[in-house]
Amino acid sequence: MMISRAAPDPDQPVVLPRSEHSISRKRIDENTLKVLYRLKRQGHKAYLVGGSVRDLLLNRIPKDFDVGTDATPNQVKKIFRNCFLVGRRFRLAHIRFGGNQVVEVATFRRKAVSEDLPEDSAEHHLVVENVFGTPAEDAFRRDFTINALFYDVASFSVLDFVGGLDDLENRRIRAIGDPLVRFVEDPVRMLRALEFAARLDFSLDEEVREAIYRRAPLIAEAAPARLREEVMELFRHRVGGKVLRSARNIGLIGHLLAGYEGDDETFDLLERVDARTSQGREVNESFVLAALYLSRFRRTCPCTGETSVSDAIRIAGLVISPHVSYFRISHGIRHQARELLIGFFRLSRGLGFRGEKRFLRHPLTPLSLELFTLWTEVSGEGKDLPLSWKKALEGLEDGGERPAAKRRDSRPRRRNAGRGKKSPS
Ligand code: ATP
Ligand code: MG
User: Given 11, 258, 374, 383, which residue has the most CB atoms within 10 angstroms?
Assistant: First the structure.
């Protein structure tokens, strides 16, 4: 990809013709292509927009394909029988295909600022994003230059209003406009900057880095539910460890995660969690939560024979408590995360303690063992233990002692033996 041109004119895109880029229609989802062609045949502009253009240019497989058009949602609805309009603030068209596939079509829009609203309206000072706009305006409302490229199905060319092609070539995350302003408008963009840098192995533009330093505290104002989802998204993309480490280095992490302070061992562990996801294991929130707070748990609760299981249960609950309250995490996930930490405690003590058989039969023990194994890899401690525990678990299977549903041992047990539940009195 050879690009040489003058500084971008806000209304005139740099056009990269078909002969000069690598996007082949074979790599575009079939139904999305149908939608693009149909809109074009009806006389509308029809572009592939957002992350898919970026990924195609980088020879990566896009996660999803979004369509931008100058047709209004109602016009789109008239063109496609299988079309449903969704969204309240901004109407989007969902075009449904077989196999549960949906192609999302959004009308080009611009960032409406307060001047567009009557001075006495309640929204006068709010920045809203619900006004139709031109393709150029649609590009400028986006977050980073590499996310604002368009692929025009009429000419098969790539349109660049914001200098995104340069930044793709230089592997750089650059904000559209002044990042100090853009991060005030939406502080979650700071986390997105770190996410794209990690996912694509790009570097942060100096202005973006500086702006994150300065605006970091604002991220705490974003809705906790949104932050929670964004953080889990990092782990689904297998960059949780890397992004949270850079969030720590840039001073964002405490504002992002309710006062969280990570240490290097934790970020190493989280990177192992990501590597585990890359191997095809599912990552869920309780596992991430347990990994995030494992180091703090270990510092507060020495995993030795001196500490009682009931102390471990209490401390496990305490260390995750600020996080679960802030993010309003459900009882089920909270319970599982705590069980994983208690499992970790039992596993690191080693074999031969009371309540071991019952612990081995606990449905979460295999998952605790996975977490424990990752931790031994990171810390270099207790390296032989995972294998011994694995054998003990297999021995349980060979011995035919299946998790007996209602069976209760006749021997009296220590209180709260590994389950965090009170024994029935
Ligand atoms: P992914 O591969 O994760 O889907 P993506 O770039 O498609 O990456 P999305 O979150 O799906 O990201 O958003 C689609 C597009 O919408 C982005 O490419 C960007 O242009 C725009 N966008 C998303 N979030 C924001 C935001 N917070 N501010 C401005 N523009 C945004
Ligand atoms: Mg996307």
Answer: 374
Question: What is the rounded distance in angstroms from the CA atom of residue 108 to the CA atom of residue 113?
Answer: 16
Q: Are 238 and 274 in contact (CB under 8 A)?
A: yes
Predicted confidence (pLDDT) per residue in 202-256, tens digit: 999 999 999 999 999 999 999 999 999 999 999 999 999 999 999 999 999 999 9
Ligand 1 atom nearest to 233, measured from its CA: 3
User: What mean pLDDT comes out for the span 82-91?
Assistant: 90
The Cα angle at residue 64 between residues 60 and 66, in degrees rounded to 5? 115
Identify which of 290, 316, 314 has the alpha carbon closest to the alpha carbon of residue 375: 290
Ligand 1 and 51: CB distance under 6 A: yes
Please tell me if the CB atom of residue 135 comes closer than 6 angstroms to any atom of ligand 1. Answer: no
Q: Which atom of ligand 1 is nearest to the CA of 55?
A: 2
Which ranges in 279-401 belong to alpha helices (H)? Answer: 285-300, 309-326, 331-349, 356-361, 365-379, 385-398
| Ligand nearest, relative to CA of residue 55 | 1
Pocket lining: 142 vs ligand 1, CB cutoff 6 Å: yes
Q: Would you state the structure tokens that stand for residue 117, as one six-digit string?
A: 């609203």
List residues with catalytic annotation: 64, 66, 143
Listed residue (244, 251, 231) closest to 271, CA to CA:
244
Q: What are the structural domains of the chain?
A: 13-170 (3.30.460.10), 285-397 (no CATH)
Q: Please state the rounded mean pLDDT for residues 91-106.
A: 95
Measured N-to-C along each axis, helices 365-379 and 264-278 cross at an angle, to the nearest 10 degrees, of 120
- Give the ligand 1 atom nearest the CA of 189: 27
pLDDT digits (tens, 9 = 90+) for 185-214: 999 999 999 999 999 999 999 999 999 999
Q: How far apart are CA 380 and CA 398, in angstroms?
A: 30
Two structure tokens written together for 415: 């209180």
